[in-house]
């Protein structure tokens, strides 16, 4: 198959940074050290990329059964999209979850007060980015489908936590997300709201296709005021 997903690692730093900075405005794009280098070093197991094999054309429609492989991509394969996350012991995402320890390089696997918490059971989904040349093709839905299924198969987490604008809160509630109210996060000066999905119980599984459509819409419209974004 021309499309495949795999776990990202630090060798994907430049490609992942290129996708991130192209997909989002400067105020929202992840910085090199904070989001890309740090997270691909300390928790690559919950960061994945969607790749197109070298010389292949993007299939249409996007297949539902994109394989997850373990081997590294060849240098010519194209990173189309990524999901970058950390774990947290919180349910709603908080500012300390979006931050990173400035001295993390001294002990990348250390336990710090901010950033990735390796014993957490909540995925703090920080970045879903699709390269602009490949937007409007369904890749946002595709990578999230793979991501959720892999998270469940590895028993990597019980919850997925997101931040969203107030206008989208009722929509996510109808899809089974629990609203925790206005977020404590003040990132980018936005009045964020906390929502959490229980992926372990499976109670929202039947609605994930609709959730993925909304996420994809936000990704392919990065300058739209409805973008749900957290770094």
UniProtKB/TrEMBL annotation:
It comes from the Eukaryota. Residues 56-196 form the N-acetyltransferase domain. One of its GO terms (cellular component) is cytoplasm. Signal peptide: none annotated. GO terms for molecular function: aralkylamine N-acetyltransferase activity. The keyword Repeat does not apply. Pfam families: Acetyltransf_10. This is N-acetyltransferase domain-containing protein. It comes from Fusarium gaditjirri. The lineage of its organism: Eukaryota, Fungi, Dikarya, Ascomycota, Pezizomycotina.
């Amino acid at each position: 198959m021309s499309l495949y997903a795999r776990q990202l690692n630090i060798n994907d730093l430049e490609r992942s940074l290129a996708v991130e900075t192209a997909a989002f405005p400067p105020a929202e794009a992840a910085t090199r050290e904070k989001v890309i280098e740090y997270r691909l070093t300390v928790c690559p197991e919950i960061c994945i990329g969607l790749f197109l094999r070298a010389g292949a054309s993007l299939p249409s429609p996007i297949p539902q059964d994109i394989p997850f492989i373990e081997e590294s991509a060849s240098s010519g394969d194209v990173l189309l999209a990524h999901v970058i996350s950390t774990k947290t012991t919180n349910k709603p995402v908080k500012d300390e979850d979006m931050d990173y320890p400035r001295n993390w390089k001294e002990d990348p696997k250390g336990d710090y007060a901010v950033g990735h918490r390796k014993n957490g059971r909540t995925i703090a989904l920080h970045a879903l980015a699709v390269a602009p040349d490949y937007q409007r093709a369904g890749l946002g839905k595709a990578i999230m489908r793979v991501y959720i299924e892999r998270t469940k198969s590895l028993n990597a987490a019980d919850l997925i936590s997101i931040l969203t604008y107030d206008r989208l809160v009722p929509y996510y509630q109808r899809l089974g997300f629990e609203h925790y109210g206005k977020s404590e996060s003040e990132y980018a000066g936005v009045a964020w709201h906390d929502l959490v999905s229980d992926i372990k119980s499976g109670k929202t599984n039947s609605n994930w296709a609709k959730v993925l459509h909304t996420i994809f819409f936000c990704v392919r419209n990065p300058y739209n005021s409805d973008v749900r974004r957290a770094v």
